[in-house]
Specification:
single chain; 184 residues; mainly beta; Tachylectin-2, Chain A; 5-stranded antiparallel beta sheet; 3-stranded antiparallel beta sheet; 2 helices; 11 strands; 39% strand; globular
């Protein structure tokens, strides 16, 4: 996921590198890297570890492109946890079957040093709740932000994948999300 403008003269991206062999205990984290030309990437930094996200203990990763605000880069990310972990989070048992639950969170990164997290919401801002998000036929319990349209007044349309078979839209506002982050 690439930032919509250069920062300090470089392109900046967030990604989740995959290891050759998948191991549950290894998890997946969000990394930041920079490039002068979008061909060669370097200066890799760990941005956020799955160990730091209770509802993303299985894996986390970047979602929709960042939104620039006066306070920083508003960034959506996804996280997945396994059903047996949900009771330790104190959440209502809403997911079906023995599958991962994908939710979406939000954080605020520094404008000039985007490897610095200024604020992060401890709980997700979007979780699977509706029939089309919990569809047991294909991939149950998935919400995954993919794109954002931000209007001049700060209203946001957040497009997200639902159960890996549909695209849905959620509505929010930049100031409302910044207020949530200020409360953390």
């Amino acid at each position: 996921m690439i930032f919509p403008e250069k920062i300090n003269g470089n392109y900046v991206r967030l990604d989740r590198p995959f290891r050759r062999g998948y191991r549950q205990e290894a998890g997946y984290d969000i990394w930041l890297s920079e490039s002068p030309d979008m061909r060669f990437w370097g200066n890799h930094k760990l941005l956020l570890s799955h160990y730091d996200v209770a509802w993303g203990s299985h894996k986390i990763g970047p979602a929709a492109p960042p939104v620039k605000t006066p306070e920083g880069w508003l960034v959506f990310f996804h996280g997945a946890f396994l059903p047996e972990e949900r009771e330790s989070l104190g959440w209502k048992n809403w997911c079906c079957g023995n599958c991962k639950v994908y939710s979406a969170g939000v954080m605020l990164l520094d404008l000039e040093e985007p490897w610095i997290i200024r604020a992060r919401r401890a709980l997700p801002v979007l979780t699977p709740r509706t029939d089309y998000e919990m569809d047991p036929i294909y991939r149950p319990n998935v919400v995954f932000p993919c794109g954002i349209i931000t209007e001049e007044n700060g209203d946001m349309k957040i497009y997200y994948g639902a159960s890996d078979h549909s695209v849905a839209v959620a509505f929010s506002n930049v100031n409302a999300l910044l207020d949530l982050l200020r409360q953390e």
